[in-house]
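Obj: model holo form, ligand = D-malate.
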Amino acid sequence: MNYIRNIDWVSLTRRVMARVAVTDGMDKKAVKIIIDAGHEVILQHYSAEELLKGALSSFDAVVIRSATKMTEEVILGSKKNNGKLTFIGRAGVGVDNISIDTATKNGITVCNTPRASTRSVVEMTVAHLLSSCRNIATADRKLRQGVWAKKELLGSELSGKSLGLIGYGRIAQGVGVAARALGMEIHAYDPYVPAEIAQKQNCRLHKEVDSVFKMCTHISIHCNLTDETYHLVNTSRINLMPGVGTDGINCGNHLINCARGGIVDEEAALEGLQNGQLSSVALDVFEVEPAINNPLFLEENFHGTPHIAAATKEAQARIGIEMASLIIEHFEGNKPTTALN
Ligand code: MLT
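Output (holo C-alpha cells):
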C-alpha cells in the first residue's frame, strides 16, 4: 500500500521512452544511465550525406560532439518522413556546429554541457604554453630523427612574461590562475565580462583587443567562433606583439588556440612563423577539421594536437553524465538545465 503511495505517478505518466542517436561517441556509464531510464540508445556515426537524407528522422534525440554538423539542412532533413526529433545535445561547450535558430523554429531543444570540460581545457592550454616555450614537441621530433639538439633548443621561461587572454570566461580565468602561479602577468579582452571579476583575479581587462596584443608576448584564445571573432588573430595584430617580456628577455611571441578553429587566421600564423614575428604557434583546433596536410605542419615551431583539449577520462565522464541527465529531464517533460533555446 505504502509502496503504491510513494510512486511519483505524475512523472511516470509524463515519461516518454525515447530513441537517442549518439553520433560522435559517449562515455559507457552515461549510455547505461540513459538506458536504465527507459530509453533506447543507438551509437552510430552518420556521414553528412546520410544526415541530409534524414538519417535522424526516426530518433527523438541526438547527442553530438564536434564531428556531426547540425546545420539548417540536416535539422530539416531530420524532420522528413514525420521526423520526431525534439532534442539536440552537444556533448561539449561549443555550439557553432548547430543551427540553433532552425532548431528553435522546429520545436527542438538544444543543450550543451558548458562546465564539464573546463578543467581539462585549462590544463591543455597550460600544457601548450609550457610545451611551446620549452620546445618539447620539437625536441621530441628531433630525438626521434637521431638529432641531439641540446645547444639549439634554447627556450624561455613563462615567469616574467605577459599572457593575453582573448575571451575571459571560465576556461580563460582558470588559465589565468595557473599562469599567474607560474609568474606571468595576466591581461584579457572580453567585452562581456564585468571589470570587477578581472580585478578580483588580478587580471588587467582591456577595452581594445589590439592593446592586449601590444602588451603580450603570449596570446591564448578563449572566445567563441562568431562573425565578430572570425580571423580575430590576423597579421596586423600578430605584428603588434612585443617579442620582449616584462622582464626584458627577448622571448619572442607565442600564440595558442584551444578554443575554435577560424579565430586564428592560419595563413597569418604561418607567415608569422616564417618571418620570425611568431616564435611558436600551438593549435588544438583548426579551421578545417580533421586537419590533414595543413601547411603549418611543415613548420618546426608549430605544435599541434587534434582537437583533444576536452579529451580526458574525467571530462568525458562528466560530460556524459551531465548529458544523460539533460536527456532524462527533457523526456520527463521538464526544461533541461542548460537549454539554449
Ligand atoms: C567543446 O566545444 O566542448 C570542445 O571543443 C570539445 C569537442 O568538441 O570535442
